[in-house]
Amino acid sequence: MDSDKRKGLRFGSKVVYYAPDEATKSISAPIITSSSFQYDADIYQEVVEGARKSVNIYGRCGNPTEYQFEEQMAIIEGADDCLATASGMAAISTALFGLLKQGDHIVCDWTTYSSTHEMLDHRLTDYGITTTFVDSANPDSVEAAIQDNTKVIYFETIANPTMKVAAIPPLVDIARAHGLILVCDNTFASPAVIQPLQWGVDIVVESASKFIGGHNDVIGGAICMKSDKLPADFLEQIRWNTMAKWGAPLSPFNAWLLLRGIQTLDVRLERQCQTAAALANHLVNHPKVEGVWYPGLANHPQHEIATAQIPGFGAMLTFAVADGDAALKVADSLELAAFGASLGGVRTTVQIPATMAFLDIPEAERLEMGIHNGMIRISTGLEDSADLISDLDIALACI
Ligand SMILES: Cc1ncc(COP(=O)(O)O)c(C=O)c1O
């Protein structure tokens, strides 16, 4: 099937179909582990003349299994191009280092993933790149933060752990009016829930370690692009200038695990989103629960925006109990759901944002971001929702 026909498929078919391998006709991607590739005179000439992705040179710069993952990610995000990386953080740092130089400025939402926040607030400042943090759900505050040296606006489709959903169209308009690149982290939603490039975002960065891989067994990342503001070969440029120089390629085996994970992305997310809704509706009426943050609830501050942008509402929710001690007691008492880091897998996982993902953020800053000590974040897996509700009820009875 040619690429245009693939792009025209519905999402559930896009994720399953891979072009058969040309050499073997295998319908499962082969894993090519070779780190080096033999030249012949023609390839040598192509490389000398500047050809890059079309030829295999050295595993740190790209690999056939990784290219197949990039092709598949581009199809499911509706991108013109994709660059794979060793992790989600490698995707974020490669994209930002590729877009920015000393003296540049970013406008970024307050509630991004903690390592992203930390990178912008501390690491990038060491290189002369500064950030103003704003509430991206308030477009006026985004516009007000723009300076002469601003190059990028950065936000997440669903922000951790408050599940904030910023309206994308006003951000697209602001970015276009000021000639800025709009970058969005789509990790918490996944392309099964929203494809931000179709809404006018320029670059999507993604931790493939979460819903894309889907089985809590792989680390990887992707940068997807569809933009008339950047050169068409921008991702190829940063493959060589940034990703390969910082040394953050996706390994062939991880690329293969991610290719396999993508095939069930649609059905996994359908079930995971339904389960998130069931848990949110249960927890919201629980006497020990002091708050529930889930975009599908009518009282969520951005419920209307979420209904338009992420009609499945995603597979993430947060609830709060009285304080940090109670949160620990509940998380530690769960037996079916796993208390631990990460999200997006077939196992339901819970974490305490204040003392896990956001531990490095000073308490006052954390509270300003809306992250309370008693919060417990849930990433719903594929277990039966009735069993998960019973697991939560038993754990909540311990406080
Ligand atoms: C929203 C978000 N973006 C990026 C990352 C980083 O991904 P990785 O762990 O694959 O580097 C994470 C990790 O939890 C995340 O939650």
Strand content: 5-15%
Can you give the helix content as a percent range? 25-40%
Number of beta strands = 12
Shape: globular
CATH class label of the largest domain = Alpha Beta
State the order of secondary-structure elements, H for helix, E for strand: HHHHEHEHEHEHEEEHHHEHEHEEHEH
How many domains comprise the coordinates? 2
Q: Mean pLDDT across all residues, rounded?
A: 95
Give a short overview.
With 399 residues, the chain is α/β, with parallel strands linked by helices. The chain has 15 helices and 12 strands. The protein is globular, with a radius of gyration of 21 Å.
Describe the model.
β4, α8 and β5 form a beta-alpha-beta unit. The mean pLDDT is about 95. The protein starts with a helix and ends with a helix. The protein folds into two domains: about 260 residues, Type I PLP-dependent aspartate aminotransferase-like (Major domain) (Aspartate Aminotransferase, domain 2); about 130 residues, Alpha-Beta Complex (Aspartate Aminotransferase, domain 1), CATH 3.90.1150.10. It contains 15 helices and twelve strands. The protein is globular and about 75 Å long. Strands 1-7-6-5-4-2-3 form a seven-stranded mixed β-sheet, sandwiched between helices. A five-stranded mixed β-sheet has the order 8-9-12-11-10. It is an alpha/beta fold. The protein binds pyridoxal-5'-phosphate. Pyridoxal-5'-phosphate (PLP) binds next to α5.
